[in-house]
Every structure is written in structure tokens, then in C-alpha cells.
TrEMBL record:
This is Zn(2)-C6 fungal-type domain-containing protein. Pfam families: Fungal_trans, Zn_clus. It is found in: Nucleus. Residues 227-237 have a biased composition (Pro residues).
């Protein structure tokens, strides 16, 4: 009967809800509950606990854990202190909460000065050789605060002269193939300035398989990689919004030829990018990418590797998806799949063998350049490489039927440039392994100093053997890029590194001279409108500039030999070049502003 009454009369006899019971048991502190006295439930402590000077403890309704009733109050206090600390270093807490915050200038973002900037490489890891640690050390040394600096101390470089960085939302349409005379001028630029460093393309094979089917024979006055490029680059019409896939190519030649031609044109224009509209290389790149699947699915894997390496070269110069880091990864995998890093037991004709070697060493050069700049481990360790350099013979003497005996007293070929690049990348790779990855010394050296003496001797012999004039390489390659590599190697050897965290005083003079030399080389290149590899230029300038300033700060000897005017001149030159690259590389504006701040701090010392 009772059960029936409780079921049918529950609305009238219903006991207090569990929710209300729990609320009362939680709201009262444990001490008051244990003493069975009324708790006034005040915060952060009830009156009873406060009079007894006892900790007022409650129970978390979600977890059942005991915790001070002042828990929320203590969290609010901590948040308030943290917000005050953020404001002291110049950060807005509200902006952080809303995701709108920007780092203060005393915090260098690895993404802002990464070499990946415009090329789309990831910024997730930057090692010691990237120069980022050098910049951070610089900031720590001067204990920089933006509000403490007199920005007027940097002469002739006002913020009003800095253009705003804008994002161009204009669609990129595939470019039309240029007229024959323009195409030939672009080929001269490509084979003189790009292919001379990285001989990805066999000149005669390219002309026969790609150029002639569309344009016919080369004009009699065009001799690629042996004559100076034209002083004024050819005018190329900018693709308009009326361009279309059908209109771009009135002919339908081999897709392979169209891919290589358009990408070669894109690279040639990027080499002289200061002469052309900003997005013209992208238009030729877009035209090439319409045929990329044909190359990726090619049964000739060496041809596919050529196509990927050209894409890597373009991605170093211009923003491109998915970026040089990932396209380089594909190239490295193909090299390993084909066994290009080792020639044990291989039997093929000389033409094919030489092509394997040149493509492997082109991949190696790009890999070491990117890995040294980003401070990342190389794709293929040097210990695993057992393949000689390719032939120094001119491409005209390397045929599918074999090598042609060169005439007596023939001039050196353009491959003198590429071999110089192969050698310096091997030296830089060893420097990175020993000094920055703290690898094991070769057995013939008993101490690190012995190795450094030998390495510096090898670097000096390399520099002395490099081409010094067009007659040394049968082309008019810009030798400033060899000078840049020489001074970069000096910075790698004598700068701060994990193996030598403290710089001897005598090294600061070398660092100062190398950094200043790189700055002025790029300044001359800007004046001559010859800067290419835009994000590489940003990286090189930032590393050179911070090294230059650090040597001044760190060494009384350097300070005694460098005047304020010299510091201002070199710094203004560096910032001028960075300013010119703002619209080409995302990192340039932040590097410029950071370097400007550092210069002002050094001048105030």
C-alpha cells in the first residue's frame, strides 16, 4: 500500500531533488559540514573558517575533488598577473584571446625569417645554420626594447619610404608562348644564369626535342652559354584576362615540350624579375603546370627528375605550391629509387651515365642549399654518396652515341660554374655536419682546430679555382653569386655554432668583413637589377646583417675600426635591398624592420 501511495502521490510527497541536495552539500565548506554549523558560503573563505584561521575547503561538483573554495578567485588572480606581465612586454592580452596578436619585435618568429617564405617551405623546424639563433642571441645581448630606441639614429631610411605589402588577388592565366626572338633571348638568360649553376637541361637535347618542334632552328646569331646575354631583356606581353587554355596554345605540340619550354621561360624571367611585371613568371609557370602530369607519369624517370628539378629551381625563386621543400623531397626519392647516389655494378652508355650524374649532383646542390639555409639534416648523407661529378665537356660534345673528342685548346665549358657549385656545397655540407650537427671528426684530424685549418685551406683553394671571367666558362654567368657563397662559407666557419659557442675575438673581424661583403654584393646586384632567388636573398641578407652587427657589439677591436657612418651605410644598404624584396617575399618586411631595430640599438652603444 505504501508503495502504491509513493508512486501515485509523488508530486505531493516528492522529496527535495538530488540537484538541490548536492548544491547544499557542495556550497557548504567541509569544515562547517563536519562541525554541523551553518556556513555563510562567503568567498574566498567563509566567516567560520576565517575566524578559526583554517583553510576553507569545498568539493568540486564535477570531479568530487577537494579544493580550496578560493580556487576560482586564485585563478582569476593568476590570470590578472599574467595579463600584467604580457602588457609589460608589449603584448595585448585581448588581442591574444581573439587570435589577433602579433609578436613583439623582441621575439623573432621562425616563420617570419624562414627561407621558406615565398617558396612555401614549412617553418616547423629551423636549425643552427639558419641564422635564427644568431639573431636571437643578438636580441638577448642588447636586451632590446622597441620603445627605448631612437629610430632617427638610422639615417636616410624613414618608415615613410617603405611601401605597404599587398596581396595581389588577380587570377593568373597561362601565358602564351612568346615570339621566336623573345624565346631565344630568354633561352640565353636561362642557359647563362640558371643552367650554368644547375645543368639540369642538356642544351642540344632540349633544342632538338622542345624548341625546334615549335620554333624551328635557332637563329644563326644565337649561341647559348657562350655569348653575353642582352643588356636589355626582351619585352614580353603580360597575359590578359582574356587569355584561355585554347587561346594560349594555337599549336598542340608534345606536352613534354610545352612543359619544359614554359618552365624554362618562367625561370629566365624570374632571373631578371626586376625587369618584368611581378606575376609574369607565374603565368608561364601556370602554362607549364597544365602538362605536369605527363612528366610525372613519364616512363623515363630521368626525364621526370628533370621536370621536378626545374620545378625546384623555380620554387626557390618564386612562390609556388607545394614549395621547394616538398618538391625537393620527391626529387631525392627518385634519386634513391634509381640508385643515382651510387654507381656500383651499373652498365649503361656514356650519355645516359653522364645524365644520371648531372641530375644527381643538381639534386645534391639544391638539397644542401636548402638544408644549410634551414639548418635541417640532408636528404642523402655524404657518406652514402659514391658517384663522381659529371663531365666538364660542353653539351655539344656529349651525344647519345658517346663523347666527341674535343678540339685542341678548346675553351672551358659553362660547366666550370656548376662544378664550382658542386664543390662548395660539399664543403658547406661538411661544415654543417662538423660544426652545427656536432658530427664526428674524420680520423685524420686529432682536434677540431686541425680540421678547421684544413677546411679553410680547401675553401681558399676552391675560391682560387673558380672562374674569374667569361673566358673561363664560355658564358657570362654573374660571378657575384660565387663571391656570395665564399663569404657565406666564411660566416658558417667562423660564426657562432654548437661546436664553438664562444667566438674568439679574432674571428669577429672575419665575421664583420664577410657580413659587410654580402650586404654590398646584394646592393650592387640590386643596382644592376640582377637579384634572383628572392627568399634566398632575404635569408642571406638577414644572416649577413645580423652577423655584421653582432661582431660590432661583441668585439671592442671591431668597434674601434668601424665608424658610426660605416655602420649606417652598410645597414641602409641592407635595408634598401630588403625593402626592394618586400613584394616578392613575405619575410622581407619583417626582416627589414627587425634589422632596422637592431641597427638603432647598436648605434646607441
Amino acid at each position: 500500500m505504501k508503495a502504491k501511495i509513493s508512486q501515485t502521490s509523488s508530486p505531493h510527497f516528492e522529496s527535495p531533488s538530488p540537484k538541490a541536495t548536492v548544491y547544499r552539500s557542495i556550497s557548504a565548506c567541509l569544515r562547517c559540514r563536519q562541525k554541523k554549523i551553518k556556513c555563510d558560503q562567503k568567498f574566498p573563505s567563509c566567516s567560520s573558517c576565517l575566524r578559526a584561521r583554517a583553510e576553507c575547503v569545498g568539493v568540486d561538483p564535477a570531479t568530487g575533488r577537494e579544493m580550496p573554495r578560493s580556487y576560482v578567485y586564485s585563478l582569476e588572480t593568476k590570470v590578472s598577473k599574467l595579463e600584467s606581465a604580457l602588457k609589460e612586454v608589449g603584448l595585448d592580452p585581448e588581442a591574444l584571446y581573439n587570435g589577433r596578436a602579433k609578436l613583439s619585435l623582441s621575439q623573432i618568429s621562425t616563420s617570419s625569417v624562414s627561407a621558406t617564405g615565398a617558396s612555401g617551405a614549412p617553418s616547423s623546424f629551423l636549425g643552427a645554420t639558419s641564422g635564427i639563433s644568431f639573431a636571437r642571441l643578438m636580441f638577448a645581448a642588447v636586451q632590446l626594447r622597441g620603445s627605448d630606441l631612437d629610430m632617427s639614429s638610422v639615417s636616410n631610411f624613414s618608415s615613410s619610404s617603405v611601401p605597404k605589402q599587398s596581396v595581389d588577388e588577380t587570377p593568373i592565366y597561362p601565358a602564351r608562348l612568346p615570339a621566336k626572338d623573345v624565346a631565344e633571348r630568354l633561352l640565353e638568360t636561362f642557359f647563362t644564369q640558371a643552367n650554368a649553376q644547375l645543368p639540369i637541361i642538356h642544351r642540344e637535347e632540349f633544342i632538338n626535342n622542345c624548341f625546334k618542334p615549335i620554333y624551328g632552328d635557332l637563329s644563326p646569331d644565337v649561341v647559348l652559354s657562350s655569348t653575353p646575354p642582352p643588356s636589355t631583356p626582351p619585352h614580353i606581353p603580360t597575359p590578359s584576362s582574356t587569355s584561355s587554355v585554347e587561346q594560349s596554345q594555337p599549336l598542340e605540340p608534345n606536352p613534354t615540350a610545352l612543359y619544359f619550354l614554359n618552365l624554362v621561360f618562367a625561370i629566365a624571367i624570374a632571373v631578371n624579375h626586376q625587369h618584368y611585371p611581378d606575376r609574369l613568371p607565374e603565368a608561364y609557370h601556370a602554362a607549364a603546370m597544365r602538362h605536369v602530369d605527363t612528366l610525372m607519369n613519364s616512363s623515363d624517370r630521368l626525364e621526370a627528375l628533370q621536370a621536378i628539378l626545374l620545378l625546384c629551381l623555380y620554387s626557390i625563386m618564386r612562390p609556388a605550391f607545394p614549395g621547394v621543400w616538398y618538391t625537393l623531397g620527391i626529387a631525392l626519392r627518385i634519386c634513391v629509387d634509381l640508385g643515382l647516389h651510387s654507381e656500383s655494378g651499373i652498365r649503361i652508355n656514356l650519355f645516359r651515365l653522364d645524365m644520371r650524374r648531372r641530375l644527381f649532383w643538381c639534386t645534391y646542390v639544391v638539397d644542401r642549399q636548402i638544408c644549410v639555409y634551414l639548418g635541417r639534416p640532408p636528404g642523402i648523407p655524404d657518406q652514402s654518396i659514391k658517384v663522381p661529378f659529371p663531365s666538364l665537356l660542353d653539351d655539344a660534345l656529349i651525344t647519345p652515341e658517346g663523347f666527341i673528342q674535343p678540339p685542341v685548346n678548346i675553351a672551358p665549358s659553362y660547366k666550370q660554374v656548376s662544378q664550382a657549385m658542386f664543390v662548395i656545397r660539399r664543403l658547406q655540407s661538411e661544415i654543417q655536419f662538423i660544426l652545427y650537427d656536432k658530427g664526428e671528426l674524420p680520423r685524420r684530424f686529432s682536434t677540431l682546430e686541425d680540421w678547421k685549418v684544413d677546411m679553410w685551406d680547401r675553401v681558399q683553394r676552391w675560391y682560387a679555382s673558380c672562374p674569374k671571367s667569361p673566358s673561363d666558362m664560355s658564358c657570362n654567368f654573374n660571378l657575384s653569386f660565387i663571391d656570395i657563397n665564399y663569404h657565406q662559407t666564411r660566416l658558417l666557419m667562423y660564426g657562432i655554432c654548437p661546436a664553438s659557442p664562444m667566438i674568439p675575438q679574432e674571428n669577429n673581424l672575419v665575421i664583420n668583413d664577410a657580413g659587410k661583403s654580402i650586404i654590398y654584393i646584394y646592393y650592387r646586384l640590386l643596382h644592376d637589377k640582377s637579384i634572383n632567388y628572392t627568399w634566398v636573398a632575404v635569408h642571406n641578407l638577414f644572416m649577413a646583417g645580423t652577423s655584421f652587427l653582432y661582431s660590432i657589439y661583441h668585439s671592442p677591436v671591431v668597434r674601434s675600426q668601424v665608424s658610426v657612418q660605416e655602420i649606417e651605410d652598410a645597414s641602409n644598404a641592407c635595408m634598401t635591398v630588403l625593402n626592394s624584396l618586400v613584394n616578392k617575399c613575405d619575410a622581407a618586411s619583417e626582416c627589414r624592420d627587425t634589422f632596422k631595430l637592431l641597427t638603432a640599438a647598436i648605434i646607441q652603444l
